[in-house]
Amino acid sequence: MHRTVTVLNPEGLHMRPADKLVRAATAFQCQIELERAGQIADCRSMISLLTLGAMQGCELVLRAQGPDADAAIEAISHLFDSQFNEP
Amino acid sequence: MLELQGIAVSPGVAIGKALVFDREGYSLARCLIAREETEREWLRLVEAVEKANRKLEESREQTTATWGQHLGGIFSAQQQLLLDPHVRFETEHLIRDKQYSAEYAVSEVFAKYAAAFRRASSSFLADRASDVRDVERVLLEALSGKPAPTLRELPHEAIVVSHDLTPGETAAFDPSKVLGICTEAGGPGGHTAIVARGMEIPAVVGVGNFLHNIRSGDEVIVDGHLGRIIVSPDDATRERYLLRRKARESIATKLQELRDLPAITSDGVRIELMANVEFPHETEACLARGADGVGLYRTEFLYLGHDSEPTEEEHYQAYLQVVRDMKDRPVVIRTLDLGADKMGMVRPAEPENNPFLGLRSIRLSLRNPALFRVQVRAILRAACAGDCRIMFPMVTTLDELRSARFLLRSVSEDLWAEGNYTPCAVQVGMMVEVPAAVLMLDRFIDEIDFVSIGTNDLTQYTLAVDRSNDSVADLYQACDPAVLRLIQRTHQIVSAHGKSTSVCGEMSNNPAHALLLVGMGIRTLSLAPAAIPVIKKAIRSVTLGQCEAMAWRALRLSTAREVEAFLMNQLAGLVPEIVLQA
Predict the structure, then answer these.
(1) Chain B contact present for A9, CB below 8 A
(2) How far is B108 from chain A (nearest CA, A)?
(3) Which of chain A's residues have a Cβ under 8 Å away from the Cβ of B88?
(4) B189 in helix, strand or coil?
């Protein structure tokens, strides 16, 4: 399962969005990854997400593998689309 | 007032308040634990993580209550860093498999990520480094039960005083806050010296035990020219140093005007002044001071303070940047010179009794061909971008030189076979640092393009003196007649074959020594970028005849003391402007 998501937040995938992303990802059983130009981040790891250095407008490939992969992709793309509910 | 003598490793005078980093307090010792204690150590860390997490949770709640969810979210994110599975996995590995203490493991892992973030091109990531450091601090506090300030965030300008500093600690220095450095341990080639010179922070190392005589807040003077430390100076001494510092600053301003003028004697002999650099960013200092090229690019920084071996790409980028920045000027890259006091990560299996006579430098490289090839590949690739030369350190026997050249040739063939690479003519040189190499130089000379004399090691190996050993450091004299004879012989053999000798040790940084070398026939000196202006001034003030007369006399003296006194006297007569009254 994969889908392309775009970082809409003006400050990029910074601390708070990454925090929300990790919290969302840990709720699922499946393995969830984000890829940016060959660099792959584990969505359960804050450090690894920050290392992507994803700025606003950056396109990432969201991948999930496991029993609840579909739901995970849905939930996480929704986070990206809603700008992680950041003010 | 207390005056102490150490080893001057980075020039300049610093006057300021001491900040003492002792083993228990600030500094994290490279601390290993017993195999049977690893399980307990790991549990100790797990507990500390829980404690730190509670602390962050409290901060989050308080901040959220006062400032709202938006700001409180920062702490929530820091909690994620603290609980990060990758961080957990890596610290567990360091503690269980490498027997690191919990503190040391935490500081290594967080330092690694903070450094990775700082290196990143986006300012967004660079700012994250401070979050990583915050989390690290909270965790270290939880481990020790007391606040653990770090060298990275000095509260005010200070002179850092410590027993020793780890590569991680020195690399994290904020040069705007660290006025000077002074350590009990350490030698001229250690990482403290390397980093201090790179950042142009006055530093004295190898002072011996004195931390019990100094407290944070005491006034200290670090004299990076004479290797002197003065604790709680009296008024007269402070005044004297303030005057000297002012005098040096005004000399430095005048010397800066020479930047675009060549280093040429008053009778027209051109001397090439190249720079010794450790870090890629130093090219800026080289160009600002009018260096003719890079005569010695030390590559050890790539290995120090990192957990893993540098990749070919990391080597390549570091070399390419310097070659490009220096435009068409020559850049001499010295292959790995680790070992002895500069231990990186490749270590001999057994601790060595005599590391300076052990598996170091080219010996270590030849013993680890896989690692050596990575570096050589990167150098050959970078060589396509400009005038980049390769130099092998500490060559002692002809077999070593031939093995190194063999590897160089096979790497070049590999690169060519892979495509995307056009072999270009890369000059190959060797460092003369061991008396055996001088004695046999007539056999080496046909198999190399140039020679560079590393006077630091040559002095140490000729006089059998470890200058990081306090008890014998006074025997270490680059101007010892024995060393001068070896330099003279080297130059004679090399020039008889129409090749060039440069001198890249600390001798080149000293104006009196530099003029002596010119008088002995040396036409290329490689020195710290900061020393280029003063050496250029010295050269422009003399004729070749004066230097030759100086060398003729110096080579007829019998002791290092006589040579030194004679040279100082000559310098005062020839270039009085740069001689300061002590």
Answers:
(1) no
(2) 15
(3) none
(4) coil
Choose among B75, B58, B85: nearest CA to A16. Answer: B75
CB of B123 less than 8 A from some CB of A: no
Q: Which two tokens stand for residue B544?
A: 């070749």
Confidence band for B581, pLDDT divided at 50, 70 and 90 = very low
DSSP count for chain B of H helices, then E strands: 21, 16
Pairing of strands B7-10, B2-5: unpaired
CA separation (Å) from B307 to B90, B178, B390?
A: 11, 26, 26
Residues 78-117 of B with CB under 8 A from A: 78-81, 84-87, 113, 116-117
Question: Which ipTM did the prediction report?
Answer: 0.84
The pair of three-digit structure tokens given for residue B77, joined into one six-digit string: 């994110």
Which candidate from B70, B87, B124 shows the least CB-CB separation from A47?
Answer: B87
Q: Which residue in chain B has the smallest CA separation from A41?
A: B86
Residue B104 neighbours by CB under 8 Å, 6+ apart: B28, B29, B30, B31, B32, B94
- How far CA B81 is from CA of B84, B308, B374, B514, B567, in Å, comes to 5, 22, 33, 53, 59
Task: Judge whether A14 counts as a catalytic residue.
Answer: yes
Q: What share of chain B is helix, strand, coil (3-state, %, to 5)?
A: 55, 15, 35
Residues 21-80, chain B, touching A (beta carbon < 8 A) = 70, 73-74, 76-80
pLDDT bucket at B186, cuts 50 / 70 / 90: confident
Report CB contact under 8 Å: B84, A15.
no
| Residue B281 pLDDT level (bands cut at 50, 70, 90) | confident
- In chain B, residues with a C-beta closer than 8 Å to the C-beta of A42 are 85-86
Q: How large is the average pLDDT for residues B493-504?
A: 96
A18 touches chain B (CB under 8 A): yes
Catalytic residue among A13, A14, A17, A21: A14
Contact yes or no for B124 and A11 at CB 8 A = yes
Whether the pLDDT of residue B166 is over 90: the answer is no
CATH topology of domain B268-575: TIM Barrel (3.20.20)
Angle at A8 between CA A7 and CA A12, to 5 degrees: 60
Q: What is the CATH number of domain A2-85?
A: 3.30.1340.10
Contact A15 B122 (CB under 8 A): no
Cα of B174 to nearest chain A Cα, Å = 23
Domain residue extents for chain B: 2-26+152-250, 35-147, 268-575
Fold observed for domain B2-26+152-250: Glucose Oxidase; domain 1 (3.50.30)
Q: What would the two tokens of residue B379 be?
A: 């150098």
Which residue type is seen at B179? L
CATH architecture, domain B35-147: Orthogonal Bundle (1.10)
